[in-house]
TrEMBL record, chain B:
GO molecular function terms noted in the UniProt entry: transmembrane transporter activity
Protein name: LIV-I protein H
Cellular component terms (Gene Ontology): plasma membrane
Localization in the cell: Cell inner membrane
PANTHER family (UniProt xref): ABC TRANSPORTER ATP-BINDING PROTEIN, BRANCHED-CHAIN AMINO ACID TRANSPORT SYSTEM PERMEASE PROTEIN LIVH
Entry keywords, A to Z: Amino-acid transport, Cell membrane, Membrane, Transmembrane, Transmembrane helix, Transport
Membrane protein topology class: Multi-pass membrane protein
InterPro entries attached to this UniProt entry: ABC_transp_permease, BCAA_transport_permease
Record field: transmembrane: 20-40, 45-63, 69-92, 104-129, 149-168, 189-220, 226-259, 266-285
Matches recorded under CDD domains: TM_PBP1_LivH_like
Lineage: Bacteria, Pseudomonadati, Pseudomonadota, Gammaproteobacteria, Oceanospirillales
GO annotation terms (biological process): amino acid transport
Origin superkingdom: Bacteria
Pfam families, A to Z: BPD_transp_2
Length: 403, 295, 331
């Protein structure tokens, strides 16, 4: 009996919410939840500073939209899908959160977006790398904003093969993200006429890379590609330097490097490494201006994820303003209708699978002589047009794309 | 070129050497654990954190005061050792008469605190430390390029390991230590300050971890969580060797380095798991580890 | 023994006291039950379910640590095995009802528990802890490598389904009462075990194993049965948790999870029936609150401090200290 009553009242309540949401902003407040790793391995690329970027966005929009206040809540996902799932559930079911931002580890993102889909709220993924997030795991309730594994492979691998690096040794972190990156790289290399000499998968995380670097050296491949992330990548790069990998004529290609990683390595160790990035703080005047503001607040330069969080939040809030509602589908449609031209992207647009398509950049780490200060780390070698960089819709397995 | 299981012998010998070098780290770390457990019966789950502190200390001393590698090699373990003595005196002493498990839980909590605080200060991206000038470059052994620094690591680690073993098993100080921890009342009666001895022993075990940390600083990225993952591997090494057996810890450490190195060639995915497989097998055959005394 | 009890008045008063304390205990359980029934109308039900799942996990763990004196450092393996089995079955076979999937998950972890137990049960103290840790690491590796677990990404979107084909568990309240029922079942099993003659033998083993052996008890057999039941209940907790969250992930198999359940049990009170429940509620709530507070990046530090304080000052845990306090002041 009790259960029935509760069910009935819940049904009525949700029907009410649904109808009012069409017309205006639910609870007369826009509630944004920031979910990211605040204390673990991915802390530096998004983490507490990502929350600062989000708050900057809210302030720049004026703290309110159409008279409705904007409220930001945040939580540490502890890199656990469990925690992500229960946090997001509570946010949407109890706290009336309308949009979830941040989202770093791919397991966390997938768990969160499932719940956002069930409850029809919006998620904007800025931290995750896996291209599956807008492919087999796509939902009508999230947008993948900053980058994914497809352009990482595409940008770096293509450039390196075209420069003559036609035989590859791939060192892969043995988990979903690494496998995805490895697969994408393999495709690009063979499509451009290169060959894969050897693939080795290392446990995640690995402490000592000397054994793998030695295997790479004896493989005779011209290019040693690192399909891993974070401290695995920086450790592998350090060890490669120690064992004279590049001196013996091999090229090192790191597929996923964040500004914070390169900063940690220093230009001495990282110089000359080619990488693909979605954004760089020093790439144009808009980016520089925003980065200066960010640095005043945090003391560090922003990563592409920080910039993406800012840009996507401003874009979201503007869409809420235009649509006059915070109902997820209406806002998402509005976001898709509006091109993105700001400090993060020029001419960026959101596709039906939720992928934000924008130009990507092939960068090279500066030499100690070129680098003017500790954050002067990249020179942009080439701009990869967005439509070339990302997986074309014709290859998509996303349920929202008619193929 | 001659091959073993499809792997050229030259490559294999390179891997064996690298395995041995990693084993030297395991030996140093497990030695500290074995000293602490063998003499004090403390299960030191903060050992990884002390290893990290050694490395971090080295980097911070260099960045702030310009302390060079050689000074850091002495100074960092000393600083960490003093911290260890304080921890023993203020915390571990309070539970000396409780079940060993409580020392595990206490030090585990301690590790969480140390790592957590430093993560908030230094982040997790890692700090860099340059390889000392004299050890830059390396030598081509024919089958592999051996960086001088790695050669130094194995020499330094082995010297410290053998020295420690000698001190505890063969010197008068060592015999006091062993006697003091086995029958503290009697030793007290002989006029030996046992509580001080206990504090110093813990400090010494912790110093060994910090020393390994200093050795690691130039070749691994130094982060506040660098000790968290190595911890359970080192524990496995100690258990395989026989808890508390000093010689067992050193030999097993080196052997596990080699086994892990070979796994990295033949089945790299399993390289972080193989030690646990060895541990299960060893404990089934020898319940007290390879060098442990039957309980 | 029982026949002579009524003979002396002193014995009688002891019996009365025992009855009174039994009654009080019953009242306490009753109060807990009533609170649990009302709770979902006050507190967010999914959060409560999380607590119940971890409470069951901790109760299962405490059966070993608290009543047999065995510290297992590999209990995550059972939690994960229950979870993965249930999750995989439910997402592969769409007609399957949740109770069958849970049963399958529990069976899988029971079998695994039997395997672990046979290998580990003869080891004592730290060696027991380390061999269970090692075995759990092997299980973790298996789950990382297997494709059916979805690797690092995990299994997502597992349907909650209809209990017995009738009750739709997609509704949080229905799900909650189901989880509560499962929890009470698990709690009752442990309660029954601990207070049975079998449980008394376990306690005897914990206190003095050689003596128990010399009295003719097959000590290893007793320990093994306790281990397997503990594994089964941990698996049950994992299975139900998977259905609640509709996902199964590697986190459950990681050794940190094995450490977390030690923390819960320790905080609540080792060797008390309610301790693990209170401990789980405390730790889950604390993590939840901290993760969402401004102190988000200090979670680990605060947990570490609690660990240290527990060991130094409240070794008996919340319930244990409460019992001590109660005995000292009211008896």
């Amino acid at each position: 009996m009790k259960i029935m009553k509760k069910l009935l009242s819940a049904a009525i309540a949700s029907a009410l919410i649904a109808t009012t949401a069409q017309a205006a902003i639910s609870d007369n407040e826009i509630r944004i939840g920031y979910l990211a790793d605040m204390s673990g391995t991915y802390r530096d690329l998004a983490g507490p500073n990502g929350l600062v970027a989000l708050q900057m966005a809210v302030e720049d929009v004026g703290g309110q939209v159409n008279g409705a206040n904007i409220r930001v809540v945040s939580a540490d996902d502890r890199n656990s899908p469990d925690v992500a799932s229960s946090t997001v559930r509570q946010w949407v079911e109890n706290d009336g959160v309308d949009m979830v931002a941040g989202l770093v580890a791919s397991s966390v993102t997938i768990a969160a977006t499932r719940i956002l889909e069930q409850s029809n709220r919006l998620g904007i993924v800025s931290g995750s790398a896996a291209s599956s997030i807008t492919n087999e795991h796509c939902t009508p309730n999230h947008i993948h904003y900053v980058y994914d594994t497809y352009p990482l492979a595409n940008g770096t691998a293509q450039a390196v093969v075209q420069e003559g690096g036609d035989s590859w040794f791939i060192l892969t972190a043995d988990y979903a993200f690494g496998h995805a990156l490895e697969g994408d790289v393999e495709k690009v290399v063979t499509a451009n006429g290169g060959t894969i000499v050897q693939k080795v998968r290392h446990p995640f995380p690995t402490g000592d890379f000397s054994s793998f670097i030695l295997q790479a050296q004896s493989s005779g491949a011209k290019v040693v590609a690192l399909a891993n992330a974070g401290s695995d990548t920086t450790n592998a790069i350090t060890t490669a330097g120690e064992f004279g990998l590049t001196q013996s004529g091999q090229t090192l290609a790191a597929l996923l490097l964040f500004l914070t990683d390169v900063h940690a390595l220093g230009v001495q160790a990282a110089q000359g490494i080619q990488l693909t990035t979605g954004w760089y703080w020093d790439m144009d005047d808009d980016a520089r201006a925003w980065s200066d503001r960010f640095m005043q607040r945090t003391g560090v330069r922003p990563t592409m994820v920080h910039a993406g969080i800012y840009s996507s939040t401003v874009h979201y809030l503007n869409a809420v303003k235009e649509a006059g509602t915070d109902e997820a589908q209406a806002v998402r449609q509005q976001m898709m209708n509006t091109p993105i031209n700001d400090m993060f992207a020029k001419g960026g647009y959101i596709r039906e699978d939720g992928r934000m398509v924008h130009d990507m950049y092939l960068a090279q780490v500066k030499t100690p002589a070129e680098s003017k200060d500790e954050w002067d780390l990249y020179k942009i070698v080439r701009t990869i047009p967005g439509d070339e960089a990302y997986r074309p819709l014709s290859e998509s397995q996303c349920k929202l794309v008619n193929n | 070129m001659s091959m073993i299981f499809g792997v050229p012998i030259a490559v294999l010998s390179g891997q064996l050497l690298l395995g041995l070098i990693n084993g030297a780290f395991y030996a140093l770390l497990s030695l500290g654990l074995a000293v602490i457990f063998g003499l004090l019966k403390i299960i030191n789950f903060a050992h990884g954190a002390f290893y990290m502190l050694g490395a971090l200390c080295t980097v911070v001393l260099f960045n702030t005061l310009g302390v060079n590698y050689w000074v850091a090699l002495i100074l960092a373990p000393l600083i960490v050792g003093v911290l260890g003595v304080l921890i023993e005196f203020f915390l571990l002493r309070k539970i000396a008469n409780e079940d060993h498990i409580y020392s595990l839980l206490l030090t585990f909590g301690l590790a969480l605190v140390i790592q957590g605080v430093l993560t908030n200060i230094y982040g997790v991206s890692g700090l860099r430390y340059p390889i000392p000038e004299v050890f830059r470059g390396g030598v081509n052994l024919g089958f592999m390029f051996l960086p001088y620094y790695r050669a130094w690591v194995i020499v330094a680690a082995l010297v410290v390991c053998i020295g420690t073993w000698f001190m505890i098993e063969k010197t008068k100080l060592g015999s006091y230590l062993r006697a003091g921890t086995e029958n503290s009342q009697l030793m007290q009666a002989f006029g030996i300050n046992v509580p001080l001895l206990v504090s110093l022993t813990y400090g010494f075990g912790v110093m060994l971890a910090a020393f390994a940390g200093v050795l690691a600083a130039p070749i691994y990225s130094v982060t506040p969580v660098m000790g968290a993952n190595i911890l359970i591997i080192v524990f496995a090494v100690v258990v395989i060797g026989g808890m508390g057996s000093i010689l067992g810890a050193v030999i097993t450490g080196l052997a596990m380095g080699i086994i892990e190195g070979l796994t990295k060639v033949f089945y790299p995915e399993a390289s972080s798991t193989v030690i646990f497989l060895v541990m299960v097998l060893v404990l089934l055959v020898r319940p007290s580890g390879l060098f442990g005394k039957e309980a | 023994m029982t026949t002579s009890v009524y003979a002396s008045p002193a014995r009688k008063s002891v019996l009365e006291q025992k009855q009174r304390s039994e009654r009080r205990k019953l009242m306490l359980y009753g109060a807990f039950f009533v609170i649990a029934l009302i709770a979902p109308y006050v507190v967010y039900p999914v959060f409560l379910m999380k607590i119940l799942c971890f409470a069951l996990f901790a109760v299962a763990f405490n059966l070993l640590l608290g009543y047999v004196g065995l510290l297992s450092f590999g209990h995550a393996a059972f939690l994960a095995t229950g979870g993965y089995t249930t999750g995989y079955l439910l997402s592969t076979y769409s007609g399957l009802t949740p109770e069958l999937a849970i049963l399958a998950g529990m069976s899988a972890s029971t079998l695994l528990g039997l395997g672990f137990g046979l290998l580990a049960i003869r080891r004592q103290g730290i060696y027991f802890a380390m061999i269970t840790l090692a075995l759990a690491q092997l299980v973790f590796f298996f789950y990382v490598q297997s494709s059916f677990t979805g690797g690092e990404d995990g299994l997502h979107g597992i349907p909650r389904g209809k209990l017995l084909g009738v009750i739709n568990l997609a509704d949080n309240l229905a799900m909650y009462y189901f989880v509560l029922a499962v929890f009470m079942f698990g709690f009752a099993v442990v309660h029954r075990m601990v207070h049975s003659p079998y449980g008394h033998v376990l306690k005897a083993i914990k206190e003095n194993e050689p003596r128990a052996t010399s009295l003719g008890y097959n000590v290893d057999r007793y320990k093994l049965v306790a281990f397997v039941i503990s594994a089964a209940l941990a698996g049950l907790a994992g299975s139900v948790k998977t259905i609640v969250f509709q996902l199964a992930s590697l986190n459950d198999a990681h050794w940190h999870m094995s450490g977390e359940v030690v923390l819960m049990t320790l905080v609540g009170g080792v060797g008390t029936l309610l301790g693990p429940v209170v401990g789980a509620a405390f730790v889950v709530s604390l993590e939840h609150q901290l993760a969402q507070s401004a102190l988000g990046d200090w979670v680990n530090v605060i947990l570490g401090v609690i660990f240290i304080l527990c060991v130094l000052m409240f070794r008996a845990g919340i319930i244990g200290e409460f019992q001590k306090f109660y005995k000292k002041n009211f008896k």
